[in-house]
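Q: For a teaching session next week I want to show students how multiple molecules come together into a single three-dimensional assembly. I've collected the sequence lines for a complex. Could you give me the predicted structure tokens for the whole thing so I can convert them for display?
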Amino acid sequence: MPPRLLRLLLASALGLVLAAGIAYWQVSQERAARVAIGGDTGGPAAARNINIGGPFELVSHTGETVTDAAFAGEYLLVYFGFTFCPDVCPAELATMARAVDLLEPEVAEQVRPLFITIDPERDTPEAMAEYVDLFHPRMVGLTGSTEQVSKAAREYRVFYQKVEDDDFNYYLMDHSSFVYLTGPDGTNRAVLPPRTSPQAIAEAIRQAMAQDETTS
Ligand code: NI
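A: Of course. Below is the structure for the complete assembly, covering every listed component.
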């Protein structure tokens, strides 16, 4: 066989292996997303055993030090992001706010949307106060020291990373973008992937509440 043909065959085989690898990776990603919302385990409520979320100490947008205990008894919609985010964060926070507004008033008053920054360097309590005010009157913004923020993010398995731009004054943050529904006892009830609709988030809250009523 001429060497050129052999090289061509080898290159095609390598291409096939790569394509199969990419296809397999995509399928596992989709499966991971379904598991995250409980699709493989019987609904969002089934996600409660996943060890997501936990104790934190942060600084609220009014400048007070607060821990998770401050929110005990409330259903929390928790989102990690940063105020400088050009698109994803504002879209997700608007969705959370809309979800709360879709609930009956007596249900909505048991729900607390929380926005935790992963960019405490720029997101001072003052910046957070201005920002959460754009979304919902019940929304609380949380920032803190680099250590406090990284500890809270670890509890929620949140990934984030600074992305420097050529412009030395400017950076963005890469970050995972899930909405976490936490029950009044602090356990996780659902992990809602990016672009979940406000209706689906409101439904996840109603389901968690219904389940709590039947088990209490
Ligand atoms: Ni963002």
